[in-house]
Amino acid sequence: MLEPHLTNKHYHLIGICGTAMASLAGMLKTQGHRVTGSDENVYPPMSTQLEQLGIPVSEGYKADNLADRPDIVVVGNAITRGNPELEYVLNQKMYYTSMAAVVEENFIRGRHSIVVAGTHGKTTTTSLMAWALECAGMNPSFLVGGVAENFQSSFRVTAGEFFVIEGDEYDTAYFDKGPKFMHYLPDSVILNNVEFDHADIYRDFDAVKLAFSRLINLIPQNGRLIAGWDSEAVRELSRKAFCPVESFGTSDDARWRATNLDFSGEMTSFDVEAGGARFESYKTPLAGAFNIRNCLAVVACAELLGLDRSAVRNALAEFKSVKRRMEIRAVVDGITIIDDFAHHPTAVRETLFAARQKYPHGRIVAVFEPRSFTAQRKEFQKAFVQSLSEADVVIIAGLFHPERYTAETGISPAEMIGALRDFGRTAEFIEAIDGIVLYLSEMVASGDIVIGMSNGSFGGIHGKLIKELERRSK
User: Which is it for the CA torsion 474, 360, 455, 368, positive or negative?
Assistant: First the structure.
């Protein structure tokens, strides 16, 4: 039963179409609250999810959106001072809070919290962990930064013991600059890897490591840290844990090891050793070595939680991934169109590695939008060139907000194209989305794999390209 102060409230979410905020909106409605929201960037899949949930969304920020005087205003982490709704909230001294704080108090407290953290792999691993619990009959609640295809949702609220949540290291709100995961009361933490990212809020790698060390410091002594041993930074940070540490990876000294990886078939297969002894064999439709590490983390965590092994094995085999994580949008005339969320050099490289493993005979065409702060900053330029060189053809779109950068602080697509050509790659800088679609529609052929990579909508490029290829085929 809910506490009295949590029942029958009107929540208004400023920035409701963010992945986490849209999910929170659905969770609050499931809990019986009235939910409204506003945003200026309204696009699928979250806008579609909100519409299906019957949650009204006002496009654009204005004080009139708060005319009904909601009980609680949730301020998204992208909302800054100067936003008309936020200024009205402050002027009127309305009660406001953050997404992470609401999740903590309304949904996590009192449950076993499984927090999945790290620079890469959070969304897939969170979804797979929730699915493993579901297959084992645990009826988990979850909140994930994407649409988990096995559940066809990014969230669920149940009466079950477990809550699985994607532990985002990005800051919480303009009034709370700490990471979101500091609110999630972890009992078990899966920490896949730690790299420098989010250069807009972390000044350097040491600052990133400090944030993750604080997460580890929250785990109680009777909790568990499931640590990605292929990441040197995770090894370093794990030494500070007050709880038992279970290491996983492909490294020889990891307690949980993946061996005999085989990417040649429709299903990826691998074996698992635990403490040097054979544990179990698994198959999964996921491609790429990074996804095997994601699976391995779930196997280790599931065993520590006492889940039925056969149920976990079936969960891996039946897992359908997450929308926008190597999601095949269409195959037109033998041309495969893939949508992927990659926006960090490591994620781009791993995505292209996985594509090469899955399509060893196809021409890989990488279409990259520098959209996130990391993707647009100069210090990552060489790393992006190295990663993108794993493709046969590379197209770089225009920066999302070029006005934010100077020649010293922002990447130079022209320099990147030159470097990629030096690698022997076909490479083009095409600023506008429609120009990219036209170029691709004239260049691609049967057997090609086109991978559009962005952490945003990318101007609807996948749908536009599919439509143009279908027109061309008639």
Answer: negative
